[in-house]
């Protein structure tokens, strides 16, 4: 079969696979603070088979997500096994991981040694008190900062720090994060708040948009946009003096669906063709019932042909995703 693509002609080269929906944080833009994990984790051997089949269909980039993936015992060995896979061109996979960073100080070196290339750390304030208010974890800030620095020393690069901006919570952190990017030598990426939280309280008024971020940052130093790949989710900027990079992921104000190259697998083995899908596609169920790799490939091809053209955030006909972010995989 030819490499995987959808009915709109978009090549599908990126996979995000969640290995748990457990998390040790309760961030206000994600969790209610009451709900725990809702779906079971699978054996790593099952995730490995799913990835192997998809790599044989054209996947080149694999990002491990959660929940908090570093909570899973055996994650380092899982990454070591993934690092042995080769894409259709015979190249090693671009292996990355998204984490809240809490367990990263001790795990950065083993992850790098196992074959992980890059890490993205979620960190929604550079002020410890504001951080605690958002995460609802009193003592997490120092761990996350230590994790960022440990990942940088280990060579997990480029190191990205993601901040979800919410009006009324942390929009005053824009300039401090610009300073943080320059001082720590990391790429800070601001993410527009999306309607994926368990509380289901999202409204357009809570979104801090790309244009507002750029304008606010210019009060500190002007940003200059730099080139990016068409399938990249973030618009990329450098400061005018060339020191420090900022990314802005703006699915609400500047959607990028037309060049989407991603599919997702949830921790319980369901394919999701879009963050905002209202359907799950049970890949693991077919594995459990004895499907061969060839049968799984046929099924995946059929699912990808159902990939949505775009999301409908903010439109009158918008229907919330059937799962919230922590139960999809970030």
Entry summary:
With 330 residues, this protein is α/β, with parallel strands linked by helices. The protein is built from 9 helices and 12 strands.
Keywords:
28% helix; 9 helices; 330 residues; alpha/beta; TIM Barrel
What secondary-structure arrangement, pairings included, does this model have?
Blueprint: E1 14-18, H1 44-55, E2 61-65, H2 75-82, E3 94-99, H3 104-114, E4 118-122, H4 128-135, H5 141-154, E5 160-165, H6 174-184, E6 187-192, H7 210-218, E7 223-226, E8 234-239, E9 245-249, E10 262-265, E11 270-272, E12 281-282, H8 283-288, H9 293-304
Parallel strand pairs: 1-2, 1-10, 2-3, 3-4, 4-5, 5-6, 6-9
Antiparallel strand pairs: 7-8, 8-9, 10-11, 11-12
Give a written overview of the molecule.
This protein has one domain: TIM Barrel (Alpha-Beta Barrel). The protein is 28% helix and 17% strand. The chain has helices at residues 44-55, 75-82, 104-114, 128-135, 141-154, 174-184, 210-218, 283-288, 293-304; strands at residues 14-18, 61-65, 94-99, 118-122, 160-165, 187-192, 223-226, 234-239, 245-249, 262-265, 270-272, 281-282. It starts with 13 loop residues before the first strand and ends in a 26-residue tail after the last helix. It has nine helices and twelve strands. It has 330 residues and is an alpha/beta fold. Helix 1 runs parallel beside helix 2, helix 2 runs parallel beside helix 3 (104-114) and helix 3 runs parallel beside helix 5. The protein has a twelve-stranded mixed beta sheet with strand order 7-8-9-6-5-4-3-2-1-10-11-12.
